[in-house]
Amino acid sequence: MKVTQIFGCTLAIVLFGSWASSQEKADELLGEWYTEDNESKVLVEKRGGKYYGTITWLSEPTYGPDDVEAGVIKHDRHNRDKNLRDRPIIGITILQNFIFNAKKDNWEDGKIYDPENGKEYKCVIRLRSRSGDEDKQSLKVRGYVGFSALGRTTVWCQVPEDERETERD
Prior knowledge:
This protein has about 170 residues and is mainly beta. It has one domain (about 1-165): Beta Barrel (Lipocalin), CATH 2.40.128. Helix content is about 15%, strand content about 40%. It has 1 helix and 8 strands, in the order H-E-E-E-E-E-E-E-E. It has one helix at about 1-25; strands at about 30-35, 40-45, 50-60, 95-100, 105-115, 120-130, 135-145, 150-160. Strands 1-2-3-4-5-6-7-8 form an 8-stranded antiparallel beta barrel. Strand 5 (about 105-115) and strand 6 form a beta hairpin. The chain is globular and about 50 Å long. The protein starts with a helix and ends in an 11-residue tail after the last strand.
């Protein structure tokens, strides 16, 4: 009887440790990330066990001089829903409903919204170290239609601590 109890406790500890390690890995997605070419910052948060990303900053927050809306704050003007076209780009949730797949070591089953064309795509996200430096992380964000092979990958870089909007007073 005692051997069975010891085995059960040991199994529970191993399973909990594995689950906790998986959760820690999953939460590495949390934080602020520069999109490709540092055009914007996206804050990734966890809500109800899923991961979401919201635009918090734009390098060019207004339309440029060559645009018909020069000087106007950038807004979701290409959204298919006409009622959403006036909402500012800053504050839009562009990553939605991602879950961590420990076996594949990625975040999947989510969608990414592209405010530049008003379209939503299936998406998969992978974390990687940059140039072998474990302290500098980047994300491979792949948006696609139908199959992952029919898509485009961008690389997002982790925002350095001294540039994070969420930690400023």
